[in-house]
Amino acid sequence: SYWVSCRKAAKNYKEELQKRFCANYSSDVSNARSIISNELFVNNTIDSSSPILQVQNVSFDREVEGFRHHTSRYEVMQEEGAALVFRRGQPFSFVLHFNRAFNPEEDYFYLQAEFGHTPLIPKGTKYKLPLSEKSDNDDDWEFSSVNQSNDENEFKVQVKTPSNCQVGLWKFALFTYKRNSPGEAKYTFLQDFYILFNPWNESDQVFLEDEEKRQEYVLND
Predict the structure, then answer these.
(1) 36 and 68 share a domain?
(2) Cα(213)–Cα(208) distance, rounded to whole angstroms?
(3) What domain range includes position 38?
């Protein structure tokens, strides 16, 4: 039947995720912790004296995002420095901590998202997302700013993946550059980002209207 097929597919997908999480991240996280203490690793590719804006740290609120995305039960979401698990078609946010105050007249940055071994823009497995206004189209990527703090060195942003986004492992990097200055800086996120199906999103093809079914087939499987 339809539901039997759905449950079988979900079970197989869950087992694949568990294999990846359990086999790879216990050693990777411990190694990463011996190198850094921040939530995310910032890979500066320019000299610290450069006028280009540089990220010193990036922080997520795992508890809040796990609750919103119904992924808090994944062990990795409870591990600082481990992978992050989100559902497609739904926004997640994080704070960029810069080395100086962000100047919107001179400083610019964009987010790069990559999927698979050979990500390509024409294939829809690589995206370069400039900071923009929020989109009402569920099939669009979105990279936008949210309510800002009083700290001029902090900038909070939000990412929303499309409701038809490829499910699986994504890699993210942030590029910054300055007006009238050559070059740009690349900041690579250490964590992997796992994007899952979203039965809570009406635009997702696996949407389930009945909350009891979501609890039974998704959260309790």
Answers:
(1) no
(2) 7
(3) 1-44
Query: What is the per-residue pLDDT across 48-93, written as a single tens digit (0 to 9) for each?
Result: 678 899 998 889 999 999 999 999 888 888 888 789 999 999 999 9
pLDDT tens profile 120-144: 999 999 999 999 877 777 889 999 9
Q: Which pTM does this prediction carry?
A: 0.75
Same domain for 102 and 161, yes or no, is yes
CA–CA separation, 112 and 125 (whole Å): 11
**Residue-wise DSSP of 25-71:** HHHHHHHHHHH--SSS-----S-TTSSS--EEEEE--HHHHHHHHT-
**Same-domain check for residues 114 and 190:** yes
Confirm if 144 and 131 have CB atoms less than 8 A apart.
Answer: yes
- Work out how many domains the chain is built from and give that number: 2
Distance, in Å, from the CA atom of 17 to the CA atom of 10, rounded to the nearest integer, reads 11
